[in-house]
Protein backbone atom coordinates (compact mmCIF):
# COMPACT_ATOMS: atom_id res chain seq x y z
CA UNK A 1 0.00 0.00 0.00
CA UNK A 2 1.36 3.42 -0.94
CA UNK A 3 2.68 5.28 2.08
CA UNK A 4 0.43 8.27 1.34
CA UNK A 5 -2.76 6.23 1.91
CA UNK A 6 -4.02 6.89 5.42
CA UNK A 7 -6.54 4.08 5.89
CA UNK A 8 -7.53 1.09 3.80
CA UNK A 9 -9.07 -2.37 3.87
CA UNK A 10 -7.52 -5.50 2.42
CA UNK A 11 -10.01 -8.03 1.06
CA UNK A 12 -8.99 -11.68 0.96
CA UNK A 13 -10.51 -13.42 -2.05
CA UNK A 14 -9.34 -16.84 -0.87
CA UNK A 15 -11.18 -16.31 2.41
CA UNK A 16 -14.35 -15.36 0.51
CA UNK A 17 -14.13 -18.56 -1.52
CA UNK A 18 -13.44 -20.60 1.61
CA UNK A 19 -16.56 -19.21 3.28
CA UNK A 20 -18.69 -19.76 0.19
CA UNK A 21 -17.45 -23.36 0.04
CA UNK A 22 -18.43 -23.82 3.70
CA UNK A 23 -21.96 -22.61 2.92
CA UNK A 24 -22.07 -25.00 -0.03
CA UNK A 25 -21.11 -27.93 2.20
CA UNK A 26 -23.86 -27.05 4.66
CA UNK A 27 -26.66 -26.85 2.10
CA UNK A 28 -25.47 -29.63 -0.19
CA UNK A 29 -25.79 -29.86 -3.97
CA UNK A 30 -28.92 -28.98 -5.87
CA UNK A 31 -29.62 -25.71 -4.05
CA UNK A 32 -28.65 -22.27 -5.23
CA UNK A 33 -26.80 -19.53 -3.37
CA UNK A 34 -28.09 -15.97 -3.45
CA UNK A 35 -25.00 -14.09 -2.33
CA UNK A 36 -25.91 -10.84 -0.59
CA UNK A 37 -23.53 -8.11 -1.76
CA UNK A 38 -25.59 -5.03 -0.90
CA UNK A 39 -24.02 -2.02 0.83
CA UNK A 40 -20.80 -2.44 -1.14
CA UNK A 41 -20.68 -6.11 -0.12
CA UNK A 42 -20.89 -5.22 3.58
CA UNK A 43 -18.02 -2.78 3.15
CA UNK A 44 -15.76 -5.28 1.36
CA UNK A 45 -16.15 -3.83 -2.15
CA UNK A 46 -19.04 -5.12 -4.24
CA UNK A 47 -17.16 -5.69 -7.48
CA UNK A 48 -14.21 -7.39 -5.79
CA UNK A 49 -16.51 -9.73 -3.90
CA UNK A 50 -18.76 -10.54 -6.86
CA UNK A 51 -15.78 -11.58 -8.97
CA UNK A 52 -14.56 -13.87 -6.18
CA UNK A 53 -17.94 -15.55 -5.66
CA UNK A 54 -19.45 -15.74 -9.14
CA UNK A 55 -18.27 -19.31 -9.73
CA UNK A 56 -20.83 -20.75 -7.27
CA UNK A 57 -23.47 -18.04 -7.04
CA UNK A 58 -26.83 -18.29 -8.77
CA UNK A 59 -28.03 -14.79 -7.88
CA UNK A 60 -26.44 -11.69 -6.41
CA UNK A 61 -28.61 -9.71 -4.00
CA UNK A 62 -28.34 -5.92 -3.80
CA UNK A 63 -30.48 -3.28 -2.13
CA UNK A 64 -31.45 -1.11 -5.09
CA UNK A 65 -31.04 -0.27 -8.77
CA UNK A 66 -27.95 1.90 -8.32
CA UNK A 67 -26.13 -0.93 -6.53
CA UNK A 68 -27.15 -3.37 -9.27
CA UNK A 69 -25.84 -1.07 -11.99
CA UNK A 70 -22.60 -0.54 -10.10
CA UNK A 71 -22.09 -4.30 -9.84
CA UNK A 72 -22.25 -4.51 -13.64
CA UNK A 73 -20.15 -7.13 -15.39
CA UNK A 74 -18.45 -8.15 -12.12
CA UNK A 75 -21.51 -10.36 -11.56
CA UNK A 76 -20.23 -12.62 -14.33
CA UNK A 77 -23.61 -12.86 -16.04
CA UNK A 78 -25.39 -14.08 -12.91
CA UNK A 79 -28.85 -12.79 -12.08
CA UNK A 80 -29.12 -9.72 -9.85
CA UNK A 81 -32.03 -9.39 -7.42
CA UNK A 82 -33.21 -6.09 -5.98
CA UNK A 83 -33.92 -7.01 -2.36
CA UNK A 84 -35.60 -3.72 -1.44
CA UNK A 85 -38.64 -2.06 -3.05
CA UNK A 86 -38.03 0.21 -6.03
CA UNK A 87 -39.17 3.78 -6.41
CA UNK A 88 -41.63 4.20 -9.32
CA UNK A 89 -38.97 6.14 -11.21
CA UNK A 90 -36.59 3.14 -11.00
CA UNK A 91 -38.93 0.52 -12.43
CA UNK A 92 -38.21 1.14 -16.11
CA UNK A 93 -34.47 0.72 -15.58
CA UNK A 94 -34.99 -2.42 -13.52
CA UNK A 95 -37.07 -3.98 -16.30
CA UNK A 96 -34.81 -2.88 -19.13
CA UNK A 97 -31.71 -4.25 -17.41
CA UNK A 98 -33.33 -7.56 -16.51
CA UNK A 99 -33.02 -7.26 -12.75
CA UNK A 100 -35.28 -9.42 -10.56
CA UNK A 101 -37.55 -7.04 -8.67
CA UNK A 102 -38.83 -7.82 -5.18
CA UNK A 103 -42.54 -7.00 -4.92
CA UNK A 104 -45.14 -7.15 -2.16
CA UNK A 105 -48.33 -7.18 -4.26
CA UNK A 106 -49.75 -7.96 -7.66
CA UNK A 107 -50.28 -4.23 -8.25
CA UNK A 108 -46.59 -3.57 -7.67
CA UNK A 109 -45.66 -6.34 -10.12
CA UNK A 110 -48.09 -4.92 -12.69
CA UNK A 111 -46.44 -1.51 -12.38
CA UNK A 112 -43.12 -3.07 -13.40
CA UNK A 113 -44.80 -5.00 -16.23
CA UNK A 114 -45.96 -1.71 -17.70
CA UNK A 115 -42.40 -1.33 -19.01
CA UNK A 116 -42.11 -4.86 -20.42
CA UNK A 117 -41.70 -8.47 -19.30
CA UNK A 118 -40.30 -8.66 -15.78
CA UNK A 119 -39.16 -11.29 -13.31
CA UNK A 120 -40.16 -10.78 -9.71
CA UNK A 121 -39.44 -12.16 -6.28
CA UNK A 122 -42.75 -12.17 -4.40
CA UNK A 123 -42.05 -11.41 -0.76
CA UNK A 124 -44.22 -12.59 2.13
CA UNK A 125 -44.22 -10.82 5.49
CA UNK A 126 -44.26 -13.53 8.15
CA UNK A 127 -43.10 -11.32 11.00
CA UNK A 128 -40.50 -8.81 9.84
CA UNK A 129 -43.10 -6.04 9.51
CA UNK A 130 -41.23 -4.38 6.67
CA UNK A 131 -41.74 -5.15 2.97
CA UNK A 132 -43.86 -8.09 1.89
CA UNK A 133 -47.42 -9.23 1.42
CA UNK A 134 -49.32 -10.02 4.62
CA UNK A 135 -49.43 -13.78 5.01
CA UNK A 136 -53.24 -13.70 5.27
CA UNK A 137 -53.51 -11.95 1.88
CA UNK A 138 -51.01 -14.12 0.04
CA UNK A 139 -53.53 -16.48 -1.61
CA UNK A 140 -55.56 -13.81 -3.43
CA UNK A 141 -52.40 -11.92 -4.40
CA UNK A 142 -50.83 -15.06 -5.88
CA UNK A 143 -53.99 -15.64 -7.92
CA UNK A 144 -53.81 -12.08 -9.23
CA UNK A 145 -50.12 -12.49 -10.04
CA UNK A 146 -50.93 -15.57 -12.08
CA UNK A 147 -53.17 -13.44 -14.27
CA UNK A 148 -50.39 -11.05 -15.28
CA UNK A 149 -49.04 -12.19 -18.63
CA UNK A 150 -45.87 -10.06 -18.55
CA UNK A 151 -44.83 -11.13 -15.05
CA UNK A 152 -42.72 -14.20 -14.37
CA UNK A 153 -42.49 -15.14 -10.70
CA UNK A 154 -38.86 -16.15 -10.25
CA UNK A 155 -39.11 -16.83 -6.52
CA UNK A 156 -41.10 -16.45 -3.33
CA UNK A 157 -39.37 -15.36 -0.13
CA UNK A 158 -39.63 -14.20 3.44
CA UNK A 159 -37.21 -12.70 5.93
CA UNK A 160 -36.29 -13.95 9.42
CA UNK A 161 -35.81 -11.11 11.92
CA UNK A 162 -34.68 -13.19 14.89
CA UNK A 163 -33.15 -16.42 13.61
CA UNK A 164 -30.15 -15.52 15.76
CA UNK A 165 -32.10 -15.63 19.00
CA UNK A 166 -35.71 -16.80 18.88
CA UNK A 167 -35.83 -20.25 17.32
CA UNK A 168 -39.49 -20.77 18.29
CA UNK A 169 -40.74 -17.72 16.43
CA UNK A 170 -38.45 -18.55 13.51
CA UNK A 171 -39.91 -22.05 13.23
CA UNK A 172 -43.40 -20.51 13.27
CA UNK A 173 -42.36 -18.19 10.43
CA UNK A 174 -40.92 -21.01 8.36
CA UNK A 175 -44.01 -23.16 8.80
CA UNK A 176 -46.27 -20.31 7.66
CA UNK A 177 -43.99 -19.57 4.74
CA UNK A 178 -43.89 -23.17 3.56
CA UNK A 179 -47.69 -23.31 3.44
CA UNK A 180 -47.78 -20.20 1.28
CA UNK A 181 -44.93 -21.46 -0.90
CA UNK A 182 -46.83 -24.70 -1.51
CA UNK A 183 -49.82 -22.65 -2.68
CA UNK A 184 -47.54 -20.57 -4.89
CA UNK A 185 -46.33 -23.68 -6.68
CA UNK A 186 -49.90 -24.45 -7.69
CA UNK A 187 -49.86 -21.20 -9.64
CA UNK A 188 -46.16 -21.17 -10.57
CA UNK A 189 -44.68 -24.67 -10.84
CA UNK A 190 -40.97 -24.62 -10.10
CA UNK A 191 -40.97 -21.24 -8.36
CA UNK A 192 -37.90 -20.98 -6.12
CA UNK A 193 -38.25 -20.61 -2.35
CA UNK A 194 -35.83 -18.70 -0.15
CA UNK A 195 -35.99 -17.66 3.48
CA UNK A 196 -32.68 -18.55 5.15
CA UNK A 197 -30.35 -15.65 5.82
CA UNK A 198 -26.97 -16.22 7.50
CA UNK A 199 -28.47 -16.90 10.92
CA UNK A 200 -31.11 -19.12 9.31
CA UNK A 201 -28.43 -21.14 7.54
CA UNK A 202 -26.85 -21.89 10.91
CA UNK A 203 -30.21 -23.31 12.04
CA UNK A 204 -30.26 -25.81 9.17
CA UNK A 205 -33.41 -27.31 7.68
CA UNK A 206 -32.58 -26.90 4.02
CA UNK A 207 -35.13 -29.37 2.65
CA UNK A 208 -37.65 -26.58 2.08
CA UNK A 209 -35.16 -24.15 0.49
CA UNK A 210 -34.23 -23.85 -3.18
CA UNK A 211 -32.00 -20.83 -2.55
CA UNK A 212 -30.25 -19.58 0.59
CA UNK A 213 -29.25 -15.96 1.19
CA UNK A 214 -25.90 -15.79 3.01
CA UNK A 215 -24.60 -12.34 3.79
CA UNK A 216 -22.39 -11.99 6.87
CA UNK A 217 -21.27 -15.64 6.68
CA UNK A 218 -19.66 -15.00 3.31
CA UNK A 219 -17.46 -12.36 4.88
CA UNK A 220 -16.26 -14.68 7.61
CA UNK A 221 -18.25 -13.26 10.51
CA UNK A 222 -20.74 -15.25 12.56
CA UNK A 223 -24.17 -13.62 12.91
CA UNK A 224 -24.71 -15.23 16.31
CA UNK A 225 -22.36 -14.94 19.31
CA UNK A 226 -22.73 -18.58 20.29
CA UNK A 227 -21.97 -20.05 16.85
CA UNK A 228 -18.39 -20.41 15.69
CA UNK A 229 -18.38 -21.93 12.20
CA UNK A 230 -14.94 -22.48 10.65
CA UNK A 231 -14.95 -19.27 8.63
CA UNK A 232 -12.11 -16.94 7.64
CA UNK A 233 -12.60 -13.17 8.02
CA UNK A 234 -12.21 -11.68 4.57
CA UNK A 235 -11.47 -8.11 5.60
CA UNK A 236 -8.59 -6.46 7.40
CA UNK A 237 -8.80 -2.74 8.19
CA UNK A 238 -5.62 -0.75 8.63
CA UNK A 239 -4.47 2.84 9.11
CA UNK A 240 -1.13 4.57 9.42
CA UNK A 241 0.49 6.27 12.36
CA UNK A 242 0.86 9.89 11.32
CA UNK A 243 2.66 11.31 14.37
CA UNK A 244 4.22 10.13 17.65
CA UNK A 245 4.46 12.15 20.85
CA UNK A 246 5.42 11.76 24.50
CA UNK A 247 2.80 13.49 26.62
CA UNK A 248 3.84 14.88 30.02
CA UNK A 249 2.00 13.87 33.17
CA UNK A 250 -1.24 15.80 33.55
CA UNK A 251 -1.87 16.12 29.79
CA UNK A 252 -5.48 15.88 28.63
CA UNK A 253 -6.34 14.03 25.43
CA UNK A 254 -8.98 14.85 22.83
CA UNK A 255 -12.30 16.68 23.02
CA UNK A 256 -13.96 16.99 26.39
CA UNK A 257 -10.71 16.16 28.22
CA UNK A 258 -12.14 12.76 29.20
CA UNK A 259 -8.67 11.27 29.61
CA UNK A 260 -5.69 12.78 31.47
CA UNK A 261 -2.27 11.17 31.73
CA UNK A 262 -1.15 10.22 35.24
CA UNK A 263 2.49 10.01 34.19
CA UNK A 264 4.61 10.60 31.12
CA UNK A 265 3.06 8.64 28.28
CA UNK A 266 4.24 7.75 24.75
CA UNK A 267 1.39 8.06 22.24
CA UNK A 268 0.73 7.73 18.53
CA UNK A 269 -1.81 9.54 16.40
CA UNK A 270 -3.48 7.11 13.98
CA UNK A 271 -5.00 8.56 10.82
CA UNK A 272 -8.53 7.22 11.13
CA UNK A 273 -11.68 8.62 12.73
CA UNK A 274 -15.43 8.47 12.75
CA UNK A 275 -15.58 9.99 9.25
CA UNK A 276 -13.90 6.78 8.08
CA UNK A 277 -16.28 4.57 10.06
CA UNK A 278 -14.22 4.09 13.23
CA UNK A 279 -17.12 4.52 15.65
CA UNK A 280 -17.17 7.53 17.96
CA UNK A 281 -19.01 5.21 20.37
CA UNK A 282 -15.67 3.46 21.01
CA UNK A 283 -14.55 6.47 23.04
CA UNK A 284 -13.73 5.38 26.57
CA UNK A 285 -14.88 1.79 25.91
CA UNK A 286 -11.54 -0.05 26.09
CA UNK A 287 -10.97 -0.20 22.33
CA UNK A 288 -7.51 -0.98 21.00
CA UNK A 289 -5.56 -1.05 17.77
CA UNK A 290 -2.64 -3.34 16.99
CA UNK A 291 0.77 -1.85 16.31
CA UNK A 292 3.62 -4.30 15.73
CA UNK A 293 1.43 -7.04 17.15
CA UNK A 294 0.71 -5.23 20.44
CA UNK A 295 -2.68 -3.95 21.65
CA UNK A 296 -2.53 -0.18 22.02
CA UNK A 297 -5.52 1.34 23.87
CA UNK A 298 -7.46 4.21 22.32
CA UNK A 299 -7.24 7.30 24.56
CA UNK A 300 -9.99 9.86 24.97
CA UNK A 301 -12.64 10.52 22.38
CA UNK A 302 -12.52 9.31 18.79
CA UNK A 303 -12.43 12.37 16.53
CA UNK A 304 -13.45 12.87 12.92
CA UNK A 305 -10.05 12.14 11.35
CA UNK A 306 -7.73 10.81 14.05
CA UNK A 307 -7.43 8.75 17.20
CA UNK A 308 -4.75 8.87 19.88
CA UNK A 309 -3.41 5.56 21.22
CA UNK A 310 -1.22 4.53 24.13
CA UNK A 311 2.04 2.98 22.86
CA UNK A 312 3.66 2.09 26.21
CA UNK A 313 3.58 -1.58 25.30
CA UNK A 314 5.54 -1.30 22.06
CA UNK A 315 8.89 0.38 21.43
CA UNK A 316 10.09 2.34 18.46
CA UNK A 317 6.76 3.36 16.95
CA UNK A 318 7.29 5.72 14.03
CA UNK A 319 5.25 7.82 11.65
CA UNK A 320 4.17 5.58 8.79
CA UNK A 321 3.81 2.45 10.92
CA UNK A 322 0.67 0.41 10.27
CA UNK A 323 -2.05 0.12 12.89
CA UNK A 324 -4.49 -2.79 12.50
CA UNK A 325 -8.07 -1.86 13.41
CA UNK A 326 -9.67 -5.17 12.36
CA UNK A 327 -7.53 -8.19 11.57
CA UNK A 328 -4.51 -10.19 12.62
CA UNK A 329 -1.11 -8.81 13.60
CA UNK A 330 1.28 -11.39 14.99
CA UNK A 331 -0.50 -13.43 17.64
CA UNK A 332 -3.11 -10.75 18.33
CA UNK A 333 -6.41 -10.38 16.50
CA UNK A 334 -9.15 -7.74 16.55
CA UNK A 335 -12.49 -8.75 15.06
CA UNK A 336 -15.47 -6.85 13.73
CA UNK A 337 -17.57 -8.49 16.43
CA UNK A 338 -15.24 -7.21 19.16
CA UNK A 339 -15.35 -3.69 17.77
CA UNK A 340 -19.13 -3.88 17.52
CA UNK A 341 -19.50 -5.14 21.09
CA UNK A 342 -17.38 -2.31 22.46
CA UNK A 343 -19.29 0.26 20.40
CA UNK A 344 -22.66 -1.12 21.49
CA UNK A 345 -23.71 -2.04 17.97
CA UNK A 346 -23.58 -4.98 15.54
CA UNK A 347 -20.90 -6.16 13.13
CA UNK A 348 -23.11 -5.32 10.12
CA UNK A 349 -23.04 -1.69 11.25
CA UNK A 350 -19.26 -1.68 11.60
CA UNK A 351 -18.57 -3.22 8.18
CA UNK A 352 -21.11 -1.23 6.20
CA UNK A 353 -20.07 1.98 7.96
CA UNK A 354 -16.65 2.13 6.31
CA UNK A 355 -16.32 5.59 4.81
CA UNK A 356 -15.49 6.76 1.31
CA UNK A 357 -11.94 7.68 2.34
CA UNK A 358 -11.16 4.03 3.07
CA UNK A 359 -9.41 2.46 0.07
CA UNK A 360 -10.14 -1.15 -0.94
CA UNK A 361 -7.41 -3.49 -2.22
CA UNK A 362 -7.02 -7.25 -2.58
CA UNK A 363 -5.02 -8.68 0.31
CA UNK A 364 -1.41 -9.61 -0.50
CA UNK A 365 -2.10 -13.31 0.07
CA UNK A 366 -5.60 -13.66 -1.35
CA UNK A 367 -5.74 -11.44 -4.39
CA UNK A 368 -5.32 -14.30 -6.87
CA UNK A 369 -8.84 -15.50 -6.01
CA UNK A 370 -10.36 -12.52 -7.78
CA UNK A 371 -11.34 -13.13 -11.38
CA UNK A 372 -9.57 -10.05 -12.73
CA UNK A 373 -7.33 -7.20 -11.67
CA UNK A 374 -10.02 -4.64 -12.48
CA UNK A 375 -10.42 -1.96 -9.81
CA UNK A 376 -13.11 -2.49 -7.17
- Count of individual domains: 2
Largest sheet, strands/sense/barrel: 9 strands, parallel
Reported CATH architecture of the largest domain:
Alpha-Beta Barrel
CATH homologous superfamily title of the largest domain: Alanine racemase
SS elements, strand count: 20
Give me the number of helical elements: 11
Helix and strand composition category: alpha/beta
Mean pLDDT: 95
Just give the CATH class of the largest domain: Alpha Beta
| Helicity range | 25-40%
Verbal overview:
With 376 residues, the protein is an alpha/beta fold. The chain has 2 domains: 13-219, TIM Barrel, CATH 3.20.20; 235-345, Lyase, Ornithine Decarboxylase, Chain A, domain 1 (Beta Barrel), CATH 2.40.37.10. 27% of the residues lie in helices and 26% in strands. Strands 2, 3, 4, 5, 6, 7, 8, 9 and 10 form a 9-stranded parallel beta sheet that branches. A hairpin with a 7-residue loop joins strand 16 and strand 17. The longest helix has 21 residues, at 167-187. The radius of gyration is 23 Å and the shape is elongated.
Please tag this protein with its features.
Lyase, Ornithine Decarboxylase, Chain A, domain 1, 11 helices, six-stranded antiparallel β-barrel, 376 residues, 2 domains, alpha/beta, TIM Barrel, 27% helix
